[in-house]
Amino acid sequence: MSYLFTSESVSEGHPDKVADAISDAVLDLMMREQNPAYRCACETLVTTNQVIIAGEYKGIYNHLEVENAVRRVIRDIGYEQDGFNWSTVDIKNYMHGQSADIALGTDSFGAGDQGLMFGYAINETPDLMPSAIYYSHKIVKHLAEIRKGVTGISPVTWLGPDAKSQVTMEYHDNGSVKRIAKIVCSTQHSAEYAIEDVREAVKNIIKGILPGELLDDDTEYLINPTGRFVIGGPDGDTGLTGRKIIVDTYGGYSPHGGGAFSGKDPTKVDRSAAYMARYLAKNIVATQGAHKATVQLSYAIGVKEPTSVWVKTDRGVDYDRITTDWIRRNVDLTPQGIINKFDLFRPIYSETVNYGHFGKANLPWESVDLFKE
User: Fold this and answer.
1) In the predicted model, what is the mean pLDDT of residues 286-307?
2) Which among 313, 335, 332, 333 is positioned nearest to 323, based on CA atoms?
């Protein structure tokens, strides 16, 4: 029997992604000094013409630079609508110095908090990412590109910044990809563009970028299923940092520890250890013959070594045990070791915000070099 599995993605203009982008822009300001003593944990709320920032930091923090960064993020996304405009939005900044109690753990490069993190890889796509999330990202990314005209054609001006996608894959009973069964996409659009035209244009855009061999006459398209979508972004719905953690990771194909990424410096293992877990899983699939791999790491606040390491592949228990033992002996899984491995005290975090933190070849945890060392 075949079965279905679904993942979703959201565009850079989705309210929660606007909040993530602002949080990581603030973090990148802190990281530009590449000072390992600096800390940042920034949370953002966005709503109609309002941005509220809160959290903690350690290091040089310039309020004017932060405000300019917030406006630049909103402008670059493309928000110049009445209810959310980069030039007129009201920004409230409630960041404060880091708690001395938290500093007891992070200053010695113990884990910044307790928690569990998962990494995952599967040999389904060129990036070793699951198919449904891979194609969901592809849809909303392409909509953003053609809206801005970065694909070499004139900007498609009737598209708005806010969009969501969802792809349902059909699998054979042996777990191999069979086809794309359903595609859902809702995109913000200009008021003068008729909904029938939106649906037809977006359907054609999607069909033009997804593999033709995965689409057939029975593939179902649900484009703006509720109808008009003119009021969007933070003017249409509140956005918060860290509410799209499944979009950020593996689309539900893998367990998730629950911790969000954006706005957190790399002493927070919610972020850095999740990157290490992906690195381990990807290397196991890329070079060790496994079709898929899941890795879990867990930590205690202030403690350097992980409290557990767990690996599961489709190769069986003995293979997994060998892999786990090898990792424990050969990979530095302390927060400091992860930071050093990926050179994480630098301003790279805005690159991670949209279309997932994994599967992007330019990010250091996507390298395939583990078993060569």
Assistant:
1) 94
2) 313
DSSP conformation letters of 253-320: SS---S---TTB-TTSHHHHHHHHHHHHHHHHHHHS--SEEEEEEEE-BT-SS-SEEEEEETT-HHHH
Please give the structure tokens belonging to residue 267: 């002493």
Q: Are 147 and 317 in contact (CB under 8 A)?
A: no
For residue 216, count CB atoms less than 10 angstroms from its CB and return exposed for 0-12, middle for 13-18, buried for 19 or more.
exposed
At residue 102, the pLDDT reads: 67
Angle at 114 between CA 113 and CA 115, to 5 degrees: 115
**d(Cα 214, Cα 122) in Å, to the nearest integer?**
18
Report how far residue 68's alpha carbon sits from residue 273's, in angstroms, rounded to the nearest whole number: 31
List Cβ neighbours of 28 (8 Å cut-off, separation of 6 or more): 69, 347, 348, 349, 350
Alpha-carbon gap, residue 233 to 73, rounded angstroms: 13
pLDDT greater than 80 at residue 104: no
Strands 292-299 and 50-58: unpaired
Helix, strand, coil share (%) of the chain residues, nearest 5: 35, 25, 40
Residue among 290, 295, 323, 292 at smallest CA distance from 308: 295
Looking at the predicted structure, is the pLDDT value of residue 373 above 60? no
- CA-wise closest residue to 186 among 168, 214, 206, 212: 206
Mean pLDDT of the chain: 95
Distances (CA, A) of 324 to 311, 315, 318, 320, 337: 6, 13, 10, 6, 17
Please determine, for residue 194, whether its predicted confidence score (pLDDT) is greater than 90. yes
Contact 86, 71 (CB under 8 A): yes
Query: CB-based contacts of 318: which residues, under 8 Å, 6+ apart?
Result: none
Closest-CA residue to 342 (of 320, 370, 302, 305): 370
Q: Shortest CA distance to 118 belongs to which of 273, 287, 338, 339?
A: 273
Given a contact cutoff of 8 angstroms between Cβ atoms, the answer to whether 288 and 279 are in contact is no
Check residue 87 and give its pLDDT: 97
Residue carrying structure tokens 């805005």 = 350
Are 317 and 333 in contact, with CB atoms under 8 Å apart?
no
Of 90, 86, 89, 29, residue with least CA distance to 55: 29
From 208, 236, 203, select the one nearest 221 (Cα to Cα). Answer: 203
